[in-house]
Amino acid sequence: MTDWALAAGGGDREAADRFVRATYEDVRRFVTYLSSDAPGADDLAQETYLRAMSGLARFAGRSCARTWLMSIARRVVIDRHRAAAVRPRTADTADWQTAAERAQPRHLPGFEEYAAVLDALRRLDPARRQAFVLTQLLGASYAEAAATAGCPVGTVRSRVARARRELAGQWRAEPEEGGPGAG
């Protein structure tokens, strides 16, 4: 993967295509979990690749290309949150929450489970969620996750362990409410 990124930085379009195809699903899942915005994940992934492709010529391969790409994805999500925080929100209905809930797909296979896991992850501290998603869902090594988060490996291990405990506590605490442990 890193070889494809380096070749793409040198102008090899085939290598760029391979790099994107090999990493797209991981980037999409990562931005989905970090942002808690499944419908907007494709936009976030696309923004990640726009930034990455414009910076490929400067990518020197000092780290794994996947780690470099996930760092860009993380910054894209942070930038999106910052932009959303300063943007005014308007609604043309008094009951906007009910309208939003009705617009969500409900009868898709695995929807309830997906929604429950996303909700459980959303409750985690953002740093713990990032470490958990990178290592447990995307399969990144602890070293790669540490490089992405800009912290020591031991911190990532601690965050993942705490995230596991918190998630397990959520599953035990909510079975009667239809939470992640229900069913």
TrEMBL record:
InterPro entries: RNA_pol_sigma-70-like (IPR039425), RNA_pol_sigma-70_dom (IPR014284), RNA_pol_sigma70_ECF_CS (IPR000838), RNA_pol_sigma70_r2 (IPR007627), RNA_pol_sigma70_r4_t2 (IPR013249), RNA_pol_sigma_r2 (IPR013325), RNA_pol_sigma_r3/r4-like (IPR013324), WH-like_DNA-bd_sf (IPR036388). The keyword DNA-binding applies. Keywords: DNA-binding, Sigma factor, Transcription, Transcription regulation. Residues 116-167 form the RNA polymerase sigma factor 70 region 4 type domain. Residues 20-84 form the RNA polymerase sigma-70 region domain. Gene3D superfamilies: 1.10.1740.10, Winged helix-like DNA-binding domain superfamily/Winged helix DNA-binding domain. GO terms for biological process: response to stress. Belongs to the sigma-70 factor family. ECF subfamily. GO terms for molecular function: DNA binding; sigma factor activity. PROSITE patterns: SIGMA70_ECF (PS01063). The keyword Aminoacyl-tRNA synthetase does not apply. This is RNA polymerase sigma factor.
